[in-house]
Design a protein that fits this description.
alpha/beta, 256 residues, globular, two-stranded antiparallel sheet
C-alpha cells in the first residue's frame, strides 16, 4: 500500500475488462482522467462468465478488507450469452441463472460499504459476420448472435433497475454509430479505440449524473498535491510559475 490514500475504482469482468488498457481502451482512458484523483484496479479475466465470477467474488472483494472500493464497474454477460455447446462444456450460462448470478454479485458489492458505488455494463452487440470469419480452427463451434446479446443485455438492465444499481446499456450505446459494426471492434467482439471511447463516455455520464455523496465525477474530486510550487515551469513573465496539476490540454478528447 502506498500513500496518500485515494479513492479506489475496481473494474471487474471478463475480456472487455481485461483488455480495457489496450487498443486505446476505456480502462486506460479512465485511469488517465482520474490520475491524481483515484487508483484504478483491474480485475479482468479473459473468457470468464458469471459462474466463475461468483467462485472468486469473496477473494476479489473480501468483506473484511481495510479499504473498500469507492466504485466497482462490473461486466459479465458476453460469454454467458454464447449458445450452449453440445458437450455441456463452455462458457454458456442459461439466462435465468445469469440473472441470479448477477444479482448475487450486486448484493455482495452492496454489502461492502455504504460508500461503495456500483455500475454494471450490459452485454454489447457483436459483428456476427466478423466473428464467424475470425474464429480460429482451434475452437469448436462458437455461437454468438445479437439476438442472444440483446436478451442478456435487457435482463441485466432490468435487474439493475430492480436493485437500484446504475447500468450502462452498451447494446444500445454502441449501435448509435452508423458504422458500429466496423468501427467499434477489433475482431467483432472486443472493443477498438472507437468502441472504448463510447464506453468511457457512457460511464462518465452515469458518474456525473449520479446523486452520490461524495460525487465521484473527476471534476468534483480533489487532485493530489495541487499546491503551487517554485519548482513548476516558469511563466512567460519570468517571475511566476505555472501549476500543471489540472492541465488536460494533452488529452486527445476533452472529456466531460
Amino acid at each position: 500500500m502506498v500513500g496518500p490514500a485515494r479513492h479506489q475504482f475496481v473494474f471487474f469482468g471478463s475480456s472487455i475488462v481485461q483488455l480495457s488498457f489496450g487498443h486505446g481502451g476505456w480502462g486506460a482512458t479512465l485511469a488517465d482522467i482520474y490520475a491524481r484523483k483515484a487508483d484504478i484496479v483491474l480485475r479482468g479475466y479473459f473468457g470468464w462468465n458469471s459462474r466463475r465470477a461468483l467462485e472468486v467474488l469473496d477473494q476479489v472483494f473480501p468483506k473484511d478488507a481495510a479499504l473498500q472500493p469507492s466504485l466497482v464497474i462490473v461486466y459479465f454477460g458476453g460469454n454467458d450469452s454464447m449458445g450452449p455447446h453440445s458437450s455441456g462444456l463452455g462458457p454458456h450460462v442459461p439466462l435465468p441463472e445469469y440473472i441470479a448470478n448477477m444479482r448475487k454479485i450486486a448484493t455482495h458489492l452492496q454489502s461492502l460499504s455504504e460508500k461503495t458505488r456500483i455500475i454494471f455494463l450490459s452485454c454489447p452487440p457483436v459483428n456476427e459476420a466478423k466473428v464467424r470469419g475470425n474464429t480460429s480452427k482451434i475452437f469448436s463451434e462458437l455461437v454468438r448472435t445479437n439476438e442472444l446479446c440483446q436478451n442478456y443485455s435487457e435482463a441485466c438492465i432490468k435487474l439493475c433497475q430492480e436493485m437500484g444499481v446504475k447500468v450502462v446499456d452498451l447494446f444500445t450505446a454502441l449501435q448509435k454509430r452508423d458504422d458500429w459494426m466496423d468501427a467499434c471492434f477489433t475482431d467483432g467482439i472486443h472493443l477498438s479505440a472507437e468502441g472504448s471511447k463510447i464506453v468511457a463516455r457512457e460511464i462518465l455520464k452515469v458518474i456525473k449524473e449520479a446523486d452520490w455523496e461524495p460525487s465521484l465525477h473527476w471534476k468534483s474530486m480533489l487532485t493530489e498535491f495541487p499546491e503551487d510550487s517554485q519548482y513548476d515551469l516558469v511563466a512567460a513573465d519570468g517571475e511566476t510559475t505555472l501549476n500543471p496539476s489540472e492541465w488536460t490540454y494533452y488529452w486527445e478528447n476533452q472529456w466531460d
